[in-house]
Amino acid sequence: MAEDARSIVLEHAADGARLREEFFRDNADRIVDVARRIAVCMARGGKLLIAGNGGSAADAQHVAGEFVNRFLMERPPLPAIALTTDTSVLTAIGNDYGFDQVFEKQVQALGLAGDMLLAISTSGNSANLIRALKAAREKGVVTIGLSGRSGGEMASLCDHLILVPHEHTPLIQEVHLAVEHLLCQLVDHYLFEAVVELTSYLDED
Ligand SMILES: O=C(CO)[C@@H](O)[C@H](O)[C@H](O)[C@H](O)COP(=O)(O)O
Ligand SMILES: [Zn+2]
């Protein structure tokens, strides 16, 4: 392999490792807190809606799959819906109203007070997510943002924001995926391994 191509690989790995280490050192408590809130939402009968564009759309589906099927442990299916998957809904809204409304209208249709919306965006500025977050707030759906850079417009619309402070989209996405897997693992932990601890939070918030 050419030396310059090899250095692209090694630089990506080194930058990613540094970002991961710093990010998790600074955000471990925040990730645990968000996971606990998702667990409480589901324990109360709420569901998690998930949205994102491009690679983050793939993440939305990935996360919904872990919750609805299972993650690391055997347990009952958990309620999560990716808003990125129904091509009839997406094309009808996109065609009739515009791409900016593809998530907003689904939040208006599916979101109930006490549900949560997880919006995944590296820029924090995708217009369809901004509109979805505003619609969520109007419906009493709690908003969680998984963002990058400095959070973008999304930051002020999220009740809980997990921010990967980096400029490089792929590296942000790679950390997002790790966070998403941890949220799945921690929600399972709270719902099925630490039930006594979780019930103490049910009357809060
Ligand atoms: O996966 C990638 C880049 O790695 C792309 O598909 C990327 O997700 C798309 O450009 C998205 O539209 C970016 O949206 P966002 O993260 O700024 O909300
Ligand atoms: Zn990508």
From TrEMBL:
Pfam families: SIS_2. Zn(2+) binds at H62, E66, Q173, H181. It is found in: Cytoplasm. Keywords: Carbohydrate metabolism, Cytoplasm, Isomerase, Metal-binding, Zinc. InterPro entries: GmhA/DiaA, Phosphoheptose_Isoase, SIS_dom, SIS_dom_sf, SIS_GmhA/DiaA_subfam. Its EC number is 5.3.1.28. Binds 1 zinc ion per subunit. GO terms for cellular component: cytoplasm. Its cofactor is Zn(2+). One of its GO terms (molecular function) is carbohydrate derivative binding. GO terms for biological process: carbohydrate metabolic process; D-glycero-D-manno-heptose 7-phosphate biosynthetic process. Pathway: Carbohydrate biosynthesis; D-glycero-D-manno-heptose 7-phosphate biosynthesis; D-glycero-alpha-D-manno-heptose 7-phosphate and D-glycero-beta-D-manno-heptose 7-phosphate from sedoheptulose 7-phosphate: step 1/1. It comes from the Bacteria. Its main location: cytoplasm. Catalyzes the isomerization of sedoheptulose 7-phosphate in D-glycero-D-manno-heptose 7-phosphate. The reaction produces a racemic mixture of D-glycero-alpha-D-manno-heptose 7-phosphate and D-glycero-beta-D-manno-heptose 7-phosphate. This is Phosphoheptose isomerase. It comes from Desulfobaculum xiamenense. The lineage of its organism: Bacteria, Pseudomonadati, Thermodesulfobacteriota, Desulfovibrionia, Desulfovibrionales.
